[in-house]
Write a structure and sequence with these properties.
Layout lengths: L2 H10 L8 H11 L8 H11 L5 H4 L2 H12 L12 H17 L13 H16 L14 H23 L11 E4 L2 E4 L13 H6 L3
Antiparallel strand pairs: 1-2
Helix pairs in contact: 5-6, 7-8
């Protein structure tokens, strides 16, 4: 595929392309009408809510990524034996994403810090993710998956708890952070990790649209 075609679809001519109804319907049970499965004004609104998490000062927090990468290294055999890294990379992604977006990591790579609710969240999210493709067919109308529904409900509840933590117990600014600023009605603190406080203004909205 030509790079210019990719650039047109994702950037310069983005408004001319749609994510497609199949994708919208397939992801709606877990993601609602969010940034990954919406178009037009709805997509733009979701993007604005998440924008404070991806400002340059936040993405420059290399310490967060290094910390979790070091956790991954502890699971690598030192004897040169072969191992499958796929599950470790999934855990790494989950740990970084949850701390980056919500200020609290699932600690999938750190058994001593892992809590039962974190394990359940990862299990529920993984089951939903692995089941989405299978639920695209018409047979799902006649073969309801109760575990899938329970898993979606648990993931939604966990996301709501992250959002409420950001509203009522926002993390304190780091020692090298600058004063809080307001972007699009959302309070952010430059210089600190983008925690739940970055989504405090939009947390309830994000949860509501994931239902």
């Amino acid at each position: 595929m030509e790079p210019y075609n990719i650039k047109a679809v994702l950037a310069t001519d983005f408004k001319s392309y749609s994510v497609g109804e199949d994708r919208k319907k397939g992801l709606r049970p877990i993601l609602g009408d969010g940034i990954f499965n919406s178009d037009g004004a709805a997509w733009q609104h979701s993007r604005e809510l998440l924008r404070p998490c991806f400002v340059r000062s936040q993405l420059g927090d290399i310490d967060l990524f290094e910390k979790h990468f070091r956790h991954l290294l502890h699971h690598i055999p030192r004897d040169g034996s072969t191992m499958d890294l796929q599950s470790l990379f999934f855990d790494l992604t989950m740990d970084i994403a949850t701390e980056f977006l919500f200020g609290e990591s699932t600690n999938s790579l750190v058994p001593d810090k892992r809590r039962p609710e974190d394990d359940r969240f990862v299990e529920a999210f993984t089951y939903v993710q692995n089941t989405l493709d299978a639920k695209a067919g018409i047979l799902t109308l006649f073969l309801p998956d109760r575990r899938f529904n329970r898993s979606c409900k648990y993931v939604h509840g966990k996301l709501l708890s992250f959002s409420l933590m950001g509203v009522f117990w926002p993390p304190t600014p780091s020692s090298f952070g600058s004063p809080a600023q307001h972007q699009d009605g959302i309070t952010t603190v430059n210089g600190q990790r983008p925690g739940a406080s970055s989504l405090a203004g939009g947390g309830a909205h994000l949860y509501r649209h994931s239902r």
